[in-house]
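ENTRY TYPE: paired fold submission
RECORD: A
CONTENT: sequence, then structure tokens
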Amino acid sequence: MNYDLTPDEQELYDRVAEFADTVVAPAAYEYDTQRRLPVEIIAQMGDMGLFGLPFPKEIGGQGRSYFDLCLAVEALGRVDQSIGVTLEAGVGLGMMSIFRYGTEAQRAEFLPDLIAGRALGGFGLTEASAGSDAGATKTTAVLDGDEWVINGSKQFITNSGSPITKLVTIIAVTGERTLADGTVKKELSSIIVPNGTPGFEVGPAYDKVGWNTSDTHPLTFTDVRVPKENLLGERGRGYANFLQALDEGRIAFAALATGAAQGCLEQALRYAKERVVFGEPIGRNQHIAFKIARMQARVHQARLAWHDAARKLDAGKPFKLEASIAKMVSGEAAMDNARDATQIFGGYGFMNENVVARHYRDSKILEIGEGTTEVQMMVITRELGLTA
């Protein structure tokens, strides 16, 4: 496996990193305290082609790889995880299923604005008692003539209530099916619900510990009617199709976490060289230097893990095991580096205007979102043949 970036990949990373440093970083504290998604920055990311990176040129994309998307997410995650996850979720959850399973009419209606960054899409899977346990889904969709009638609720849905949100694709129970052994299971399907559909209500944004700039809302559906043509993909294949997007999303999530770990490393290294105590930079103290050495090792490990998974994905090789490893390793690296960076900064690290303080608040979700660390270990043990 070659872990070197090609010249085109390096150029992309450098270009996005410069945008992150000059545009995103200076505004990050303001938007974090306002708890709002800066749609003007999202528009600039759209103009840069970031939302279209992994999609073909013939539909408005950049014709590049999933690896390239992850590079952009990592570069943004260094300075603001909220902006990085807006890109990651916008592509992986908002667009990928429509691109992969949508009809020509669905792709023509929804993808152009999403790819251009003029609009965002969300994916509604999680409920109060359902998420990893998709079989506990209670939201229903009943076919009534030429329309689906949807009732239920979703929670923790990213990009679902921003000023530019265009749609949310949801998982709903559309019936039951009997397996060969006689077991009866819920039939889960994906349905596109455009923003503004009567009965579709977006609740107030969550008061979160971190990711304050990222748009996250609960959703309720009360006799929501959408055309039967809004079924996304084959009926009864909604969750199965989403699992592929989730596996892919874990790689981009790992890239985001790697960016966060890298950002903490950069800040801690700079401060350790500048901060003078008792006549010497604190970085000359062995306990500080060793802490930073450990931070560097975590970043290296996390980056190698997501690079390996992304290269396998783009090569068409199995990548489920590698994606879960990357997600687990990088999430822990981000959380550990955020804690160590905050400790190195001391009191300054406890001030919210400091990027390491935001990383400290933001990074915990990297061990929870898109499958907790425990879920990743379940996947890994299953892939190793240790569990059914």
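RECORD: B
CONTENT: sequence, then structure tokens
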Amino acid sequence: MKKKSIHDILPLELIHRIFLRVPAKHLARLRCVSKLWYSLISDPHFAEMHFHHSPTSTNACVFVEKGTVAYFVDLDALFSDNNDALQVRKVSPPFKLESPPHFEVLGSCRGFVLLHQHERFLVVWNPLTGSSKLISYSHIASRSKYKDWLPLGHHPYGFGYDTSKDDYLAVVPWQDKHGQDHFDCFSLRTNSWIDFNAALPKPLGFSDWDSSGLFFNGAIHWVPSIFNDYRDAILIFDLKERTFSMISVLEQLGTSSRIYLGLALLGGCLAFYNRGFNRVKTEIWVMKEYKVHSSWTLSDSYL
């Protein structure tokens, strides 16, 4: 007598509904059960549906070591009493083995990570399910000041989600052959590039910004790679309105010494941290009310 499989007992539609309610951290193992399950869980549309249907969110981080190795850290397991839970595991970025191994993280949003590893291509990657999407930017590179490629380093890239259109957007900066600054967006929903003419607040000097934007409150945020002036220190791009704006940090930071800034989320609020060359502590400032300058509050200092 032939042994029945789970597919003989449960219809595929029901299996799909069950998967939508499985915690995200278990999906990677379920992908290994069969080719059918692998295909089902790796579908980009499944990842979006899972985000809305899963009853429990996964608090996790992805750390990149020297631009070559990525680790998935389950924060819930890390701070739980369950010592048997898998807290850290190595994950493989979606690149061919024969490709150069170095890659750079350009942004993240709702479990997806925007990566760059190869000239003319960006990659949107879900480290939990292993699914990925390749994005070609060759049409931008052909018009760019830098022949056939886009500069990384301190150029403000970003990745975020537009709730009004249910769409993920990759934001790419570039300079034309006349040195004029531009931003283009790639829409994952339409699988196409959006060439828009949003007015920048001022000449940015693309080489002076943190390359990885922070997505928060429907917008992508960047800070200068080296802080020189507290005024208009944070650049904001609203994904719904497709407009730019800027907010200031604290005058107390001063401008006499070079200070490195970084952005983070703390307690559901926008925060920045800074460390100068001669400082022994890292200060963390939290904006208690979004875009209200007077709400900046010193949270804590760490050695």
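NOTES ON RECORD B: The longest helix spans residues 44-53. The chain has seven helices and 19 strands.
STATUS: closed
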